[in-house]
Automatic annotation (TrEMBL):
GO molecular function: glycosyltransferase activity; GMP synthase activity
Signal peptide, first to last residue: none
One term under GO cellular component: cytosol
Protein name: Anthranilate phosphoribosyltransferase
InterPro entries membership: Nuc_phospho_transferase
The entry's keywords: Glycosyltransferase, Transferase
Domain of life: Eukaryota
Amino acid sequence: MKVLLNLEPSSLFPTRSIFADRSRSSTRLPVLPFPKLCRRRWIVRRLSSPARAVLDSAPVEQFEIPEFDFRNPSLSSSYRDPAMPKPNQTVLEAQARVCTGPMQTRPLDEEQAFKVFDTILRSARGELKDEDEVSKAQLGAFFAGMTIRANAFPEATQWSEGETRAMKTFWPLLVRALPSDVIFVADPEGSMMGLGSSIGPQYVGNGTSEMRLVGALREVLAGGHLGFEEVQGVLKEVLPFQEGDGKPPQGVSEALLSAFLIGQRMNRETDRELKAYCLAFDDEYGPAPIADVRSLTHYGEPYDGNTRFFRSTLFVAAVRSCYGESCLLHGVDWMSPKGGVTEEQMLKYMGANINLSPSKATKLLEDDEVGFAYVSQRDARPSLYSLVRIREHIKKRPPLATTEKVQQYVKASGKEAMVAGFYHEGYEEPLLMLMKRRGIHSGLVVKGEEGALSMTTRLRSVNASKGLPVNYCSGFRSLNIPSTSEPGGVTRQGFHLEINAKDYGFQPTDTPRTDRSVSKNIELGLEALRGEKGPAYDRIVLNAGMVDHLLGADGAEDVSVSLDRAREAIDSGNALKRLLNYIKISHKVD
């Protein structure tokens, strides 16, 4: 934190030297020493007059921001656990092409297919070691993708001629080298290339947990769907996943689990399946604690973070808390596939306590000097967090990437709302469905940049891709009219629109780039909370005021008033003060 409050982060962590070396040996970056400089001078010299007055009235040292152990924050990927084995890159690139949806899959050509199958064969024979070895999670995901494509995908995304030739060449060799669980995933009917193997048809797994998983996986590999109870039963049987030679004590193969997770996503989950993933571990630590607050908004940012653009939600939460709109953020330290900047990385760099239970977060929500909190999935849902490594080796996002954004780690005595980001068209309605299932009063999904939930002030590009535009919003508000058909027994009013920031008085500007730099993201956010006008300031104001308006927050009926209220929270210095309060008080809650 001393670095942050004294010097420009870029002066201590030169971006050029980090991005120049992309070799595998440079994944763990060196920690540079903190200089012993005056922290107060760095903040105060950059503040606008009202904000400066806030800090002039009390020394910055009173915040007692602690020292802590951290990795170099100039690159978000440095937060990846270095103890996790890396996936084989050749097979991972193939997974990116073939472990996706019926319309998105890109079949491998002959050269690519032969290279992939040769890599898998050499790994199965023990000829590849360490990072070159193909993990069982990769084998499960890759062969699940191949099987589902053959069984259920349209002709255009089924096996290419090159893939078929490669399989004819390699399968007689692979069937003698691969373990039985992987052979089952690749050939559940025992009919691959006319060899008539009995391994797949007769495979039942080892132990009751794996037997249940195998039974469900047969349906998934055929392109089918499962019921709510069946999905929940499987998840509760196999999670938390425990590392250890690919087969933990409860007897669940990571190849089978990976095949199950990616297979359900490739088949496009039904509402029943998504609800099962969303609610499966609500009772992991008992009932959610209840915060005694008038209003609480749950923010569901994509857990894999931002790799290109400024991530504003942490600073938006500080703003909205100033006028009684309490905010609960949740996420992880690092998540694939993007491995981008997350709220947890920023809070850790700034010195906040990132290991809060939901009960402790409740106290920060109720604190009149804070009003927002962050909870890590690691502390709230360890069963789901146990999948971080497997998710990296799966490559593509599993169903949990959608449902983890709609978690309710804390409940409120007053009104509750949820906001979540999405990218792929077709997931906006499932997200809203899950929000309604939570029984909240208002819900909003936003197609922000990078699939995040933040709206931008830039103009829509004339070369924008097809589909829903950036800044598309869809949601619902409760009307306080009793209903017998709606979840929760209340009537909800739906809406959808595209937000053009220019219509609300914002000058069009490009979103600031951070390019995986945690420190740069913090620098932009603090400059904005200090009252410095610019693209980051405008983006925070837009997202605070517009979310208030769309969710039907008290005092936000007029959008211009709502935006002005957000500006006042920043220009008065209150939002910055609350963020600093959070850093200090998060270490003192008990």
